From TrEMBL:
Enzyme Commission identifier(s): 4.1.1.23
Molecular-function annotations in GO: orotidine-5'-phosphate decarboxylase activity
InterPro entries with a match to the protein in the record: Aldolase_TIM, OMPdecase_AS, OMPdecase_type-2, OMPdeCOase_dom, RibuloseP-bd_barrel
Recorded family membership: Belongs to the OMP decarboxylase family. Type 2 subfamily.
Pathway in which this enzyme or protein is active: Pyrimidine metabolism; UMP biosynthesis via de novo pathway; UMP from orotate: step 2/2
Catalysis: reaction(s): orotidine 5'-phosphate + H(+) = UMP + CO2
Domain Orotidine 5'-phosphate decarboxylase: start-end pairs: 16-266
Gene3D superfamilies: Aldolase class I
Signal peptide bounds: none
Name of the gene encoding the protein in the UniProt record: pyrF
EC category: lyase
Naturally occurring in which organism (per UniProt): Cellulomonas edaphi
Protein name: Orotidine 5'-phosphate decarboxylase
C-alpha cells in the first residue's frame, strides 16, 4: 500500500490526529525527567505507550532528539521502531531541504527501506525549489512512504516567503501546492505527497490562491493546541479540503503527561475534537 492509502485507513480507524513528540527541556522538567538522553527515552516510551495503536500517527520532532547528540538520535530511531511495532504511522518532522545531490542523502537517511530513521513520512522544505526535492519524492514513492512539503506554515513569519508572488503572479504557496497536486494526480484514495498547512493560518489559502482541495493528498495541520488553533480554526482554514486533514498537536497533548492514562485521554479527546471539526 502507498503511504496515502495507509494514512487514509489509519485516519478512518483512529480519527484525524497526529500526536507530536516534542520533548522540550521544559516538558522533561515538568515530567520530572533529566534533560539528557535517558530522560528523552523515558519521555518517548511513555508517549508511545499512551498513544501507540490508538491514534493515526505520531510526529517526533527531530530537533528535540538531535539536541542530545548521537544518543538522542538513537532514541529517535527507537520511536520509529515503536511506531512500526504498534502499527502507528510515524511522520519524522525533520524539515529537510537541500540541493538535489545532498537531498539524495537525506532521502536515504529518512526514506530508505532498512534505514533506522525511516518512518512512514518525512517533512521537507521546498524553499531551495520544489525540484530540489526530487530525490526524496522518488524514494518516498518507490518505497511506499510519503512527504509533507511545507506550504503555509503555522508561524507568522512564514508569510514573508510563502505569500510572495512569483514573476508569473502566483503565490509561492500556490506553486508548491500545485506541484504536490501534480504528483498526486493519479492517486485513487489520497496521494502520498502531502502539504504542511498550519491550522493557525486563517484565510491564507484563499488570499494566496492556494487550492487545497485540488491537492489530492494529506494536509498536515500543526498549530492545534499550544499555538491556539482548535476546532473552529480547523473547520475555517480547510473548508472543503477538510477530509484530507491530519491535525497535529504536540504540547497540547504532552502537557497531560507523564501519567499514561492522562496522556491517552488528552490524545483521544483531541482526536475526537478534530474528527468533529473535520467531519
Ligand atoms: O508550520 C509548522 C510546521 C511544523 N510545526 C511543528 O509542529 C510542532 C508543533 O508543536 P506544538 O507544541 O503543538 O505547538 C512542532 O514540532 C513544530 O516544529 C509547526 O508548529 N508549524
Amino acid at each position: 500500500m502507498t503511504f496515502g492509502e495507509r494514512l487514509a485507513a489509519a485516519m478512518d480507524e483512529h480519527g484525524p490526529l497526529c500526536v507530536g513528540i516534542d520533548p522540550h527541556a521544559s516538558l522533561l522538567a515538568d515530567w520530572g525527567l533529566p534533560d539528557d538522553a535517558s530522560g528523552l527515552r523515558s519521555f518517548a516510551r511513555t508517549v508511545m505507550e499512551a498513544v501507540g495503536g490508538r491514534v493515526a500517527a505520531v510526529k517526533p520532532q527531530a530537533a528535540f532528539f538531535e539536541r542530545h547528540g548521537s544518543a538522542g538520535v538513537a532514541v529517535l530511531e527507537e520511536v520509529v521502531a515503536a511506531g512500526r511495532e504498534t502499527g502507528t504511522l510515524v511522520v519524522v518532522d525533520a524539515k529537510r531541504g537541500d540541493i538535489g545531490s545532498t537531498m539524495g542523502a537525506y532521502a536515504d537517511a529518512f526514506l530508505r527501506d532498512g534505514s533506522p530513521l525511516a518512518g512512514d513520512a518525512l517533512t521537507v522544505s521546498p524553499y531551495l525549489g520544489f525540484g530540489s526535492l526530487d530525490p526524496a519524492v522518488d524514494l518516498a514513492l518507490s518505497s511506499g512512504r510519503g512527504l509533507f512539503v511545507l506550504c503555509l506554515t503555522s508561524n507568522a513569519e512564514g508569510a514573508q516567503v510563502q505569500h510572495a508572488r512569483t514573476a508569473e503572479g502566483a503565490s509561492v504557496a500556490a506553486v508548491m501546492a500545485a506541484r504536490a497536486a501534480a504528483l498526486n494526480a493519479d492517486a485513487a484514495v489520497m496521494g502520498s505527497i502531502g502539504l504542511v498547512v498550519g491550522a493557525t493560518v486563517g484565510d491564507a489559502a484563499a488570499r494566496t490562491g492556494t487550492d487545497l482541495s485540488a491537492v489530492n493528498g494529506p494536509l498536515l495541520a500543526p498549530g492545534v493546541g499550544a499555538q491556539g488553533a482548535g476546532a473552529d480554526e480547523l473547520a475555517a482554514v480547510f473548508g472543503p479540503a477538510r477530509r484530507q486533514v491530519l491535525a497535529s498537536s504536540s504540547r497540547g497533548v504532552l502537557r497531560a503527561g507523564p501519567d499514561v492514562a492522562g496522556l491517552r485521554k488528552a490524545a483521544l479527546d483531541a482526536s475526537s475534537e478534530a474528527a468533529a471539526a473535520l467531519r
